[in-house]
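User: Can you help me understand a structure? I only have the sequence.
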Amino acid sequence: MCCCIKPTKNGEPGYLWSSVGMEGIHPVNPPAIEDGDTVLFDEPGRCGGIDSHCHHYRVIKGKFGGLQLLVRHGGGDERIPYISNGKAFTAALETLDSDGRYWVLNAMYHAQSKAKREGVEAEGNRWRNAAAEKRIKTRKIPSQGIVRVWMEAKEGREGR
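Assistant: Let's start by predicting it. Here is the structure, written out as tokens:
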């Protein structure tokens, strides 16, 4: 829990972890970039209403084009490709100050993260239900060295 007296960015003095502790500086810890990446925006963690010191965001132009959002948090680094077609999104981010840009990137990341988690859960539920209903079928094709796996449709859906 952040106890900073005023909103503080990582790398600046004023970070306070406990109300009894001494003020310090939360280290800047950016996500790694790869050869050929160009950093367009670099927004270290901060607080201000909520504690977000653990998330550091970078918007980069990848080696082969396209914008990507890089995130470092307590669970490690994430690379979210294809966040935009480029110019319009970059221009919009440029109009924001650092705090505004950080909180927009934070909202984008958390929306994407939640959608991804819900999609994985929904697909897992779909396959679990199919397994319970014995609708998962497999076929070995030895000549090609593969196994095909598919899910048959539920009964009663024919003709719809």
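Now, to help you interpret it: Strands lie at 13-15, 24-25, 38-43, 46-47, 51-52, 56-61, 67-73, 76-84, 136-141, 146-151. The chain has one domain: 29-141. Let me know which part you'd like to focus on.
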